Amino acid sequence: MHILQLYKDYPPVKGGIEGHVQLLSEGLAARGHRVTVLYVAPERRGCHTWRNGVELIGVPRLVTLARTPLSPALLWYAARLRPDIIHAHHPYPFGDLALLVTRAPFVITYHSDIVRQRILGRLTAPLINHTLHRAACVIATSPPLAATSPWLRCHRERIRIIPFGLPPLPLPDPALVAALHRRFPGPNALFVGRLRYYKGVEYLIQAIARLPRGHAIIAGGDATVRGYDLVRLAAVLGVEHRVHVLGEVDQMTLRALYALADVFVLPSVARSEAFGIVQIEAQLAGLPVICTELGTGTSFVTQHGRTGLVVPPADPSALAQALASLFNNPSRARALGLAGRERAITEFRLSQMVERTEQVYREVTAV
Q1: Tell me, which fold does domain 174-347 have in CATH?
Q2: 157-172 pLDDT, tens per residue?
Q3: 329-259-232 Cα angle (round to 5)
Q4: Could you give the count of Cα atoms lying within 13 Å of 271 in the half-sphere of its Cβ?
Q5: Which of 165, 322, 332, 360 is least enclosed by beta carbons within 10 angstroms?
Q6: What's the farthest any 2 CA atoms get from each other in the chain?
Q7: Cα 231 from Cα 288, distance rounded (Å)
Q8: Which CATH code fits 2-165+349-366?
Q9: pLDDT over 90 for what percent of the chain?
Q10: What is the pTM of this model?
Q11: Alpha carbon of 197 to those of 189, 322, 351: distances in Å?
Q12: CA separation, residue 171 to residues 175, 191, 283 (Å)
């Protein structure tokens, strides 16, 4: 089967959706499918190459508006490629335009609502609704997202739930873990992710300031400006010696940080955080997770009282109480972490995600 994946970006551009598209594409290619990814290259020069068995067509970027890259070449390729099925990833309104010029059946993975770009959302609403109505199947990543998204209410009969999946984490370097432990003696709360507006990391710092002990380790890319704000906030609160904004770290350091941490925190504050794939990474590392209740998939991945704790968003007092309960009770934290690891292995396996998606393709192309 020739499968075309359609989205705005692709690694090495970093992001949850970008990483998911790569894992899914390479997983499908490993199962014998011909997989092409059509995306917009980061620069004005396009590229056409193969990586890990996947054909990558990066079209030239004309301009970027509201975090949406535009490229007439995307429409040109979409009209001329002849895949058996197209798998588009939402939100990307320009990708909806590309679907208008295609003839192949297509499915949509609905990753999240358009939250912050409200003007863009209103302008593109008719186009998005048209795409959802035409899609042969709409994939949602969790039951709460499917139930609460205002965009998905009219399409429940065609929604399939396929959670994200990840491969096992490689083992960390013990020497690096030991070196980091000397730097961060703990107890340590770890955050990993790009520092977007909806991540709520400022509330993690405020929670640490409410505790007599404990460190916050904040790792993620794109931290130059936002990281400066967080450092200044920590200084104002008098906890600059217990808040460590690391910026982007390599994979070896990231694995060591997972091994070093006592708890993982995802303090997001908006529905833009529709799943929180990084929670699965933390679970695979055996960490208990504290996340926020957003009405999306965050509390589907982390089950309150079973694999971690779920607190209200933008509530540093509640977050501080949850941190204290795990810092002060290592045996409970360990039990939650082990339960989370078991859930990640059974419910969020990469192979399971690929197989479920492949089954959707078969159902759609058999009609």
Answers
A1: Rossmann fold (3.40.50)
A2: 999 999 999 999 999 9
A3: 80
A4: 18
A5: 332
A6: 63
A7: 25
A8: 3.40.50.2000
A9: 84
A10: 0.92
A11: 20, 23, 32
A12: 12, 19, 14
